[in-house]
Amino acid sequence: MADSLAARFPDKAARDAELHRIASAWAEVFDANSLFILGGAMETYDVSARFDRIKVPVLYVLSRTDALFPPSLAPGVMADLRKAGVDAAYFEIDSDHGHLASGADAGKWAPALRDFMRKLEAGK
Asked: How many CB atoms sit inside 10 A of residue 61's CB?
């Protein structure tokens, strides 16, 4: 994550302070043990067998630099969703913010979300 902050915080001390701020804010909301639970679930639980239960359209959004959910996952996930009959669209955020891109660069994928929502409203 420090690398993704380098452009905004070239000074190492400032970058470290920002990392501390982000981590502190996260720690105020989440129990640290939740990382272990989430990590274990990511490694062992495969939901693709239940994709056929999805009855609403899906907008699958990943960041170009996300190390937790890299864009290399998208082709397989999208194929599995479509195979299960799910109406799914994919959008990749061009961001250096990794896993935090959906919030940090919300404006970069807002048009895709807006288009997705318009299609839902139109009943498509």
From this structure: 20
- Asked if residue 51 lies in contact with residue 80, where contact means CB atoms within 8 angstroms, the answer is yes
Question: For strand 88-93 and strand 58-63, is the pairing parallel, antiparallel, or unpaired?
Answer: parallel
Q: Is the pLDDT of residue 1 over 60?
A: no
Check: CB of residue 78 under 8 Å from CB of residue 50: no
In the chain, the DSSP E strands lie at: 58-63, 88-93
pLDDT digit string (tens) for 88-116?
999 999 998 888 899 889 999 999 999 99
For 43, 77, 105, 115, the CA distances from 68, given in Å and listed in that order, are: 11, 15, 17, 26
